[in-house]
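User: tokens in, sequence out, please.
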């Protein structure tokens, strides 16, 4: 004959609460990890700021600033570049 352990409803409810808490924490950890992945990926990129002056077709001096993000693993590949005139 098989004997079964009797569980009280309070034990069952506390186990369910623990399970839900574990699932909630796993979701929170997953969201944090997803938010950190781009930071970890692009942390290797080295931002380089360049300032200069160019002349337009009518010989007027125009200041410009550019931000170039270089990938350290692939030096010939630019990840992002912006120019302001």
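Assistant: Sequence out:
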């Amino acid at each position: 004959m098989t004997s079964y352990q009797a569980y009280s409803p309070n034990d069952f409810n506390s186990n369910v609460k623990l399970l839900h808490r574990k699932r909630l924490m796993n979701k929170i950890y997953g969201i944090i990890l997803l938010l950190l992945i781009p930071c970890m990926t692009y942390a290797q990129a080295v931002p380089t700021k360049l300032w200069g002056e160019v002349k337009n077709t009518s010989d007027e001096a125009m200041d410009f600033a550019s931000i170039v993000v270089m990938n350290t693993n692939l030096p010939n590949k630019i990840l992002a570049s912006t120019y302001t005139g």
